[in-house]
């Protein structure tokens, strides 16, 4: 049998451990990960191994030679010019893969039963079989959904929590027939999960998933690496030990000396030719490589120490990793999660704080306290971006120094000499953060077009009208008033895609930052024409004659958070009488209770002065809440359907984009106007992308998230939305309350339940497996269809918190209540059962 070992990984997230070695050469119990995989292949009869190499290939070639010490015939294929991806590198081996073959990842630890997987593959007569694993935290992997015959029906690469529908993930092990490679182009980068498997499924080929109950750990980061070490020590993964068990649970290599007063607590692994001094304490979970020396009184607790490391007297190591050749002098302390690169020297009484990483061959002076990464500023964040941008607690997470570096990271991803816009709300914290971002951007040679304080819709609309490649907007987070939200926009005003987010994160965390000479520094230009440009857009897209013939009175409540009361100025051109409430700026935004109280007060004002309606503006001009002429507030679903009908009255047959959570009332309204409804993920990013990419979209969004008018610009815009609402009222001979009364009546209810992150995937898979496939739709979340067309339940994991959302929809209120109650009981019982001791 022949297998392909994918051993070209850079191991970026494992740096600095992988600065001078490829990821497959990172040791587990003092042997490279790739060595354990070769032994696994050998045990299951794979004798001919083709290893694809890219990063530092000579390290692997020198260690494994021709594979004779591992019982295999090992040949190497170098990707010299560029990485071709997991599938692209295998495609280039087509001439050497003329019968069924296995593809194995060289940077994970596993004891899969490859023999049983091959038998399954042949029994199913599949063109491809993916060996699957079930994990508690599937968000970092490729999620796989199979039908009851274990045929793969859907792949979700690295889902976020709201997309999670299973705990079953792609392990990176594939069994393939040679003809599967016909679906790939030659000499072009491609991957199994994102290219080959979807093409096979689209062609109707048999692609199966084999769920292996054995051990599997993708060693993608420092935490996974240390967990794999401990699992190997505890025997949770079947490996071939190359050392004797000196005492139960304590493995010691040849030539190692251990002082009689040393205290050893199993499980432990100590390599060959080591020295363990007097009164040394080696606590459970510690791994020590070959030729290392631990001096008297040192204490190692769950430390992973590689080869030729010297640890001085009375030093203390806790939950950390030290690469080859590190030297610690006396009384050095290294704390939880710290990583020290190869060849570093730490002088006496130096301290390395938790989670700090030090790149190879650095010198730390005596008594120094290292609390920031020596190359990176901080590694406290795993990701910078959540949905919509970068957010964090004001002046705690989002500080001036953080913002400067974020500006440098963003500037480093775009060409020198480019221009970007920068804008903000009027609060002091936003001004501080914006100035720091500007400083960072200018240091990379980027020109700033400063829009200063501007509502979000105005800032978005400027992107397409200025010579810029993108923009940044800073404001208080609409969801968390103690947080700052930094939004990155593309040249159309949309939130940037995940690809650019990843590039910014890579530049930030890896400190791949550009610095330009003084003469090439960026400059700043203040843009003063933002309001006239937006005003022109605004006026050109409204029916001026209609609005002038029918004067309106509207109450506008800015709730102390206005970024410039531009709406009254714009509406005045159409003869609209706007009564303004709470337009003064308050640095501390109103709480939810205060906002609700202000909404009730506005309703009283609307009723008292006989206004047509009232609106409360939120989210720096992106959202609004509506009250009718009687002072009654519309709920989110009513507002969604009302705005959709207003747009269909103007353009029958157009497309309206709404979140998948929206009620079927919008579908009933669409039928009246021959309109189309497109549903997407309930996130601002997804809604904006759909409005841009779909043809003939006249409206996007919802009452909860805000509304997008593609004719204006790509983002949410409460300013124009209110004007469009007034225009719609003028076309009617009835009041707003009468119009709302005529909207379709649908029972629609939302329920939120707690569910720990590590149980989400398993819960979603069990729900999926417990229903007939023809009742399910899992393109987004898990939608379960009832007996009637208007009856459905949507199960949607939360993207940010350990919660799960249930949305029930029907004409029948009783069906909604019974369905929600039934699923609530099922989910709570499931969580309680798995959490019970």
Automatic annotation (TrEMBL):
Belongs to the phosphohexose mutase family. Residues 248-352 form the EIF2B subunit epsilon/gamma LbH domain. GO terms for biological process: carbohydrate metabolic process. It comes from Synechococcus sp. (strain ATCC 27144 / PCC 6301 / SAUG 1402/1). The keyword Metal-binding does not apply. Residues 383-513, 540-631 form the Alpha-D-phosphohexomutase alpha/beta/alpha domain. It holds the Pfam family NTP_transferase. GO terms for cellular component: carboxysome. Keywords: Cytoplasm, Initiation factor, Protein biosynthesis, Transferase. This is Mannose-1-phosphate guanyltransferase. Residues 3-231 form the Nucleotidyl transferase domain. It is found in: Cytoplasm, Cytosol. One of its GO terms (molecular function) is intramolecular phosphotransferase activity. The keyword Lipid metabolism does not apply. It comes from the Bacteria.
């Amino acid at each position: 049998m022949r297998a392909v070992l994918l051993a070209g990984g850079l191991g970026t997230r494992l740096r600095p451990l992988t600065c001078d070695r490829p990821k497959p050469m990172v040791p587990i119990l003092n042997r490279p990960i790739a060595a354990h995989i070769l032994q696994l292949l050998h045990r299951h009869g794979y004798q001919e191994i083709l290893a694809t190499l890219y990063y530092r290939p000579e390290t692997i070639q020198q260690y494994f030679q021709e594979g004779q010490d591992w019982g295999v015939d090992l040949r190497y294929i170098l990707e010299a010019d560029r990485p071709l991806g997991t599938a692209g590198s295998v495609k280039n081996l087509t001439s050497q893969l003329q019968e069924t073959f296995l593809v194995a990842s060289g940077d994970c630890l596993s004891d899969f039963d490859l023999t049983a997987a091959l038998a399954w593959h042949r029994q199913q007569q599949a063109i491809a079989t993916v060996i699957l694993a079930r994990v508690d935290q599937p968000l970092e992997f490729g999620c796989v959904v199979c039908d009851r015959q274990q045929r793969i029906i859907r792949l979700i690469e690295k889902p976020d929590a709201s997309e999670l529908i299973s705990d079953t993930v792609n392990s990176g092990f594939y069994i393939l027939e040679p003809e599967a490679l016909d679906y790939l182009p030659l000499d072009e980068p491609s991957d199994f999960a994102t290219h080959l498997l979807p093409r096979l499924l689209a062609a109707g080929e048999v692609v199966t998933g084999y769920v292996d109950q054995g051990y599997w750990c993708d060693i993608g980061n420092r935490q996974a690496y240390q967990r794999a070490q401990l699992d190997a020590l505890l025997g949770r993964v079947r490996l071939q030990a190359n050392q004797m068990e000196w005492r139960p649970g304590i493995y010691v290599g040849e030539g190692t000396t251990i002082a009689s007063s040393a205290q050893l607590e199993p499980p432990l692994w100590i390599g060959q030719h080591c020295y363990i001094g007097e009164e040394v304490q080696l606590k459970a979970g510690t791994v020590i490589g070959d030729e290392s020396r631990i001096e008297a009184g040192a204490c190692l607790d769950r430390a992973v120490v590689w080869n030729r490391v010297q640890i001085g007297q009375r030093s203390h190591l806790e939950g950390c990793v030290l690469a080859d050749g590190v030297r610690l002098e006396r009384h050095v302390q290294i704390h939880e999660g710290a990583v020290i690169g190869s060849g570093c020297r730490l002088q006496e009484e130096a301290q390395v704080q938790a989670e700090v990483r030090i790149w190879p061959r650095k010198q730390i002076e005596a008594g120094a306290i290292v609390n920031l990464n020596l190359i990176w500023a901080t590694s406290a964040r795993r990701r910078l971006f959540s949905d919509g941008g970068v957010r964090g607690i004001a002046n705690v997470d989002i500080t001036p120094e953080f913002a400067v570096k974020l500006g440098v990271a963003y500037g480093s991803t775009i060409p020198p000499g480019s221009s970007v816009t920068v804008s903000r709300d009027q609060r002091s914290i936003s001004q501080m953060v914006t100035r720091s971002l500007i400083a960072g951007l200018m240091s990379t040679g980027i020109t700033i077009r400063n829009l200063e304080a501007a509502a979000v819709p105005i800032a978005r609309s400027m992107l397409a009208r200025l010579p810029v490649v993108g923009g940044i907007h800073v404001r208080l987070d609409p969801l968390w008033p103690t947080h700052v939200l930094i939004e990155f926009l593309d040249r159309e005003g949309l939130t940037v895609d995940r690809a650019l987010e990843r590039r910014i994160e890579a530049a930030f965390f890896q400190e791949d930052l550009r610095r330009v000479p003084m003469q090439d520094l960026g400059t700043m230009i203040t843009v003063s024409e933002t309001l006239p440009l937006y005003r022109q857009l605004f006026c050109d897209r409204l029916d001026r004659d209609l609005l002038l013939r029918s004067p309106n009175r509207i109450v506008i409540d800015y709730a102390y958070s206005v970024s410039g009361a531009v709406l009254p100025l714009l509406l005045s051109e159409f003869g609209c009488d706007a009564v303004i409430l709470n337009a003064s700026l308050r640095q501390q935004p109103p709480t939810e209770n205060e906002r609700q109280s202000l909404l009730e007060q506005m309703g009283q004002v609307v009723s008292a002065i006989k206004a047509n309606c009232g609106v409360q503006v939120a989210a720096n001009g992106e959202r609004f809440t509506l009250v009718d002429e009687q002072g009654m507030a519309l709920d989110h679903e009513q507002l969604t359907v009302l705005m959709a009908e207003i747009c269909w009255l103007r353009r029958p047959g157009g497309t309206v984009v709404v979140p998948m959570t929206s009620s079927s009332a919008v579908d009933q309204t669409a039928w009246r106007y021959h309109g189309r409804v497109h549903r997407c993920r309930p996130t601002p990013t997804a809604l904006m992308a759909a409005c841009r990419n779909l043809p003939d979209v006249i409206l996007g969004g919802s009452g909860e998230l805000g509304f997008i008018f593609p004719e204006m610009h790509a983002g949410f815009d409460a300013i124009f939305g209110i004007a469009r609402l007034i225009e719609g009222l003028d076309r009617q001979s009835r009041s707003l309350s009468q119009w709302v009364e005529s909207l379709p009546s649908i029972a629609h209810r939302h329920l939120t339940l707690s569910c720990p992150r590590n149980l989400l995937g398993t819960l979603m898979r069990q729900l999926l497996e417990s229903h007939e496939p023809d009742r399910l739709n899992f393109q987004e979340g898990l939608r379960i269809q009832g007996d009637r067309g208007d009856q459905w339940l949507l199960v949607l994991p939360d993207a940010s918190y350990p919660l799960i959302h249930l949305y029930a929809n029907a004409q029948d209120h009783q069906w909604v209540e019974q369905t929600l109650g039934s699923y609530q009981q099922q989910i709570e019982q499931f969580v309680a059962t798995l959490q019970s001791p």
